[in-house]
Amino acid sequence: MSLQSDINSLVASVDLELFDISIVNEGEETIYRVSVLSKEVEDSKRKGVSLDTCVDLTHLISPLLDVTPPVSGDYRLEVGSPGIERKLTSLQHFKLSIGEKVSVLGTQKAKHRGLLTKVEGSKIFIETEDGTIEVEFNDIVKAKTYFEW
Fold first, then answer.
1. Which domain range does residue 12 map to?
2. Tell me: the pLDDT tens digits for 84-106?
3. Is 124 helix (H, G, I), strand (E, B) or coil?
4. Do residue 102 and residue 76 come from a single domain?
5. From CA 78, how far away is CA 137, in angstroms rounded?
6. Torsion angle in degrees (nearest 10) through CA of 66, 67, 71, 72
């Protein structure tokens, strides 16, 4: 099994969903970042992930990384939520964000904002003020979830 697959299994064991794994450099520090989402939905919105849950998950993942280091050299493990407003860079990100508001910029500079209603194959469906639009994933330049205050 791959490291990502093993981490995904650990995330699922605490009833969360793996959103993303990334390696980022901030200054001189390398961070191995694991972003997770709650499976629980309340009032048509995903519940947040508590700090205690992130700490527990860190304790589960850390020994795995001791055996299979994700990068060479020193790094810091960071487990957390990707946040209420987050970048969507894969079809899986879109699937995990169904029911949330999204902002999408297409290759033809077309901008769409609305409720992400479904993902079928490589097509993203967004309910906008003007009706439902269909966007091909490969035509998306940039996308993110957003929150209206």
1. 3-80
2. 899 999 999 999 999 899 999 98
3. strand
4. no
5. 29
6. 90
- Per-residue pLDDT, 131: 93
Give the predicted TM-score (pTM) of the model: 0.84
85 is a domain residue: no
Which three-class secondary structure state does DSSP give residue 40? coil
Q: Dihedral sign for Cα 43, 45, 49, 50, please.
A: negative
In order of 55, 65, 79, 88, 108, the CA distances from 11 in angstroms are 12, 14, 10, 20, 38
Confidence of residue 149 (pLDDT cuts 50, 70, 90): confident
Residue 86, domain member (yes or no): no
pLDDT of residue 124: 97
Contact criterion met (CB below 8 Å) for 124 and 142: no
